[in-house]
Amino acid sequence: MDTINYVHLSEHQKELLDKSEQVMETAYNPYSHFFVGAALRTTDDNIITGSNVENAAYGLTICAERSAILRANAMGYRMFKGLAIIARGEVFDTEEVSASCGSCRQMLYESRQISEQDLEIVLSTTKKDKIVITSIDELLPLPFGPVDLGIDIKKYQT
Fold this sequence. Notes:
Blueprint: E1 2-4, H1 11-24, E2 34-42, E3 47-51, H2 64-74, E4 80-89, H3 102-115, E5 120-124, E6 131-135, H4 136-139
């Protein structure tokens, strides 16, 4: 993992992070009041965004990362190469980056297997003053996905 600041990001990384910052404001978060935005970059350079959506039955809450994956799938995209995540509280900015939960990491890993490449992940504080560049392979050691079950993923590669 590398820690850098916004000015040292590539243009592609900045674009992805900026899109995740914009969509963060669409979060439906009446319980936690925590805003999270995610932006996925497809292998053909489209950007698909998602924000967290909470529910009174807390277990039904969908994180921003999974929201973006589900939206991308509904749009016909399953091949990804990058993701950016940014978060903030209702009355505070984050001082540390917010990383994906375990459920999101598993879904991102499955996307990684379908894409047949690691996913670069950009994690940022609200003010973009601390940014961590990592990957799903680094965030989810000893993973397990469809390939490990002998699933032929070729038909899902769109």
